[in-house]
């Protein structure tokens, strides 16, 4: 169970703006994500969804704005404690087996209480693939393994960049079940999507990015 001892947002950003080669990508924008809810970030190609997640994760530096995690200014230590990031890149070792990858990630990042790598593989539908090298997996199987890595993380805030990509209908339902379970335990999720898939059946709001302008709507 992820503790939520106060009502501060797990993640809050104010006046966040990012430019690339002097061209605006997004912002300025404000957002927050509370424990027990999902923020769905929608927009077409080039709207800045992936860039926003990379800024929040600390991989890119914003031109302006502030980011706070659980009420404290975001830094590398706070991000490592609070954030689990699923990007378009798998962050997996291609020449290690699936189970070896999860054990390695748990050794580096810790793991959720009462969750084990073998169980996580079963949850994402990869039971029986424990010794399979990552480079031998399909794109959908690699996505499922990346989801297992996120599931094992003790971080309360999930940053999920297009988590439905490369997944079949069963995989899409898996993502929704995982997000629902994570939020029920007091976690939160920020999910980018083109809007092609139904939102997970959880308390959520929508942030729409469009050509450096954004609007946040209550859902």
How would you describe what is shown here?
The chain is α/β, with parallel strands linked by helices and 219 residues long. It is 29% helix and 28% strand. The strands form 2 sheets. It has a 6-stranded mixed beta sheet, sandwiched between helices. Strands 2-1-4-5 form a 4-stranded antiparallel beta sheet, covered by helices on one side. Helix 3 packs parallel to helix 5 and helix 5 (139-152) runs parallel beside helix 6 (169-184). It starts with 10 loop residues before the first strand and ends with a strand. 39% of the residues are buried. The model is unreliable at 1-5 and 212-219 (pLDDT under 50).
Order of H and E elements: EEEHEEHEHHHEHEEE
The helix/strand class is alpha/beta
Cα shape: globular
What's the average pLDDT? 88
Fraction in beta strands: 25-35%
The tally of helices reads 6
Cα Rg: 17 Å
- Please give the order of strands in the largest beta sheet: 6-7-8-3-9-10
How many angstroms separate the termini?
26 Å
Q: How many strands, what sense, and barrel or not for the largest sheet?
A: 6 strands, mixed
Runs in which pLDDT lies below 50 for 5 or more consecutive residues are 1-5, 212-219
Helix content: 25-40%
Count of DSSP strands: 10
Topology, element by element:
Layout: E1 11-20, E2 23-33, E3 38-42, H1 49-56, E4 64-69, E5 72-73, H2 76-82, E6 83-86, H3 98-109, H4 117-123, H5 139-152, E7 157-161, H6 169-184, E8 188-193, E9 204-210, E10 213-218
Parallel strand pairs: 3-8, 3-9, 6-7, 7-8
Antiparallel strand pairs: 1-2, 1-4, 4-5, 9-10
Helix pairs in contact: 3-5, 4-5, 5-6
């Amino acid at each position: 169970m992820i503790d939520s001892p106060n009502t501060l947002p797990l993640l809050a950003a104010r006046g966040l703006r990012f430019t690339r080669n002097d061209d605006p990508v997004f912002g300025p924008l404000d957002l927050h994500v509370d424990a027990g809810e999902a923020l769905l970030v929608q927009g077409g190609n080039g709207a800045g969804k992936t860039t926003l997640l990379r800024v929040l994760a600390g991989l890119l530096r914003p031109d302006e704005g502030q980011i706070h995690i659980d009420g404290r200014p975001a830094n590398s230590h706070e991000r490592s404690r609070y954030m689990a990031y699923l990007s378009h890149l798998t962050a997996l070792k291609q020449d290690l087996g699936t189970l070896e990858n999860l054990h390695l990630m748990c050794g580096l990042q810790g793991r959720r209480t009462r969750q084990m790598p073998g169980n996580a593989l079963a949850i994402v539908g990869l039971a029986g693939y424990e010794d399979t090298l990552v480079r031998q997996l399909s794109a959908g199987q690699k996505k499922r393994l990346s989801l297992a890595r996120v599931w094992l993380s003790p971080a309360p805030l999930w940053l999920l960049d297009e988590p439905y990509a490369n997944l079949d209908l069963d995989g899409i339902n898996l993502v929704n079940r995982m997000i629902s379970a994570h939020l029920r335990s007091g976690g939160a999720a920020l999910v980018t999507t083109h809007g092609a898939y139904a939102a997970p059946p959880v308390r959520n709001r929508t942030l729409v990015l469009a050509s450096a302008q954004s609007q946040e709507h209550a859902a």
